[in-house]
Amino acid sequence: MTRETIRVGLGPRSYDIVIGPGALAEAGDRIAALGRGKRVIVIADARVAALHGTALDAALAKAGIAVETLTVPPGEATKSMTVLAGLLDRILGLGIERGTLLVALGGGVVGDLAGFAAAVALRGLDFVQIPTTLLAQVDSSVGGKTGVNSQHGKNLIGAFHQPLLVLADTALLATLPARELRAGYAEVVKYGALGDAGFFDWLQDNGPKLLAGDGAATIQAVKRSCEMKAEIVGQDEREAAQRALLNLGHTFGHALEAETGYGDALLHGEAVAIGMVMAFDLSVRLGLCPAADRDRLVRHLDAVGLPTRPDRSRSWSVDALLHHMTRDKKVRDGRLTFILVRGIGQAFVTNEVPAEPVAAVLADAIAA
Ligand SMILES: NC(=O)c1ccc[n+]([C@@H]2O[C@H](COP(=O)([O-])OP(=O)(O)OC[C@H]3O[C@@H](n4cnc5c(N)ncnc54)[C@H](O)[C@@H]3O)[C@@H](O)[C@H]2O)c1
Ligand SMILES: O=C(O)C(=O)C[C@@H](O)[C@H](O)[C@H](O)COP(=O)(O)O
Ligand SMILES: [Zn+2]
């Protein structure tokens, strides 16, 4: 079996990301090898549990591990304090100990929620990520950002809590709806756009193959994305500086998600695609980035069917978007922090952006 293993180097909290088709079937042996006892609680997205829960149960049973599964409803609305409170009640109701291991089975929603539950239950349980969307395999399962949304904004309640292991079985993506695969692909493009122009070139040639289900292209893209994320997180776990590069497109994107109510109207990856274009627009407007690089990004996102500007059939307001942006966790002394670019693959972090060009980028993007 093809397996790629990437190590996230965080001293005593270092862990492996195992990538490849069939990794789920190895979950029992790999979890047993962690030496955390013979009992796990799986927290699963109900849709994913129906599709892949039996295979995980069988893998765990083969290694003599007892499993109890708790499901949560699919969708971004599940990343809430209400669902978290109910989930914690159910976890505690199972009579857990500090040694009990949680396993998150699903996309970024379940990974963020279950990871946060693991961070706070009994003041901290160990957990394993089994990501089942492209987005979760390339991004959310790695790096330890866990949490839920608040009425005040996206991911405003949470904790840094690293998993013990990430098992990214790329074969599970076969059941993922095309729109979800595409949305996850936006975070893959993000890695090329922020720090690897060669990877961006590769994606221009291979992205369509990946989206058509090509296994080799998928493994390669997941591997490169995880390598980049592991390197950045290994240097700056708590986003004191360079980790903010992984937020390219997110200050704008999270504002769009907040305005659309965190529903099916705009998926996180779709918001990131639009947000990246806005970050490039702002960089061009400030004279930092050639317009040709912005155009290249837009052409590639267009070519794979990702949105590049907010849906014009809705009504948007610059002030409302700016209001959401002020809730961003990167705000320092009242100033917004942006991830800007000098070109494809050359992102940097700054909090020295005047207000006018930001408002102008928003106004242009939402103009009818
Ligand atoms: N923690 C981080 O570093 C980080 C990084 C990026 C995104 N995120 C968060 O991740 C979330 C988005 O994650 P997502 O895009 O994975 O969405 P998601 O978890 O909502 O999953 C998308 C949909 O796909 C379904 N699904 C999942 N796996 C499937 C499979 N293999 N087959 C069929 N259906 C499947 C789910 O039921 C759901 O309906 C957002 O909340 C975002 O903020 C977090
Ligand atoms: O891991 C990170 O760091 C990221 O910023 C990855 C992002 O893709 C992800 O959406 C993350 O959840 C955003 O974090 P936030 O701190 O802006 O809420
Ligand atoms: Zn993201």
Describe the structure.
Its main location: cytoplasm. Its cofactor is NAD(+); Co(2+); Zn(2+). Belongs to the sugar phosphate cyclases superfamily. Dehydroquinate synthase family. The chain starts with a strand and ends with a helix. α6 (178-195) packs parallel to α10 (268-285). The strands form three sheets. A seven-stranded mixed sheet has the order 1-2-9-6-5-3-4, with helices on both faces. Helices cover 46% and strands 17% of the residues. It has 368 residues and is of the alpha/beta class. The protein has two domains: 4-175, 3-Layer(aba) Sandwich (Rossmann fold); 178-366, Up-down Bundle (Dehydroquinate synthase-like, alpha domain), CATH 1.20.1090.10. β1 (4-8) and β2 form a beta hairpin. It is globular. Residues 139, 143, 145, 154-155, 187, 239, 243, 246-247, 250, 329 line the site of ligand LNCXM5UN. The site of nicotinamide-adenine-dinucleotide has 31 residues, from α2, α4, α5, α6 and α10.
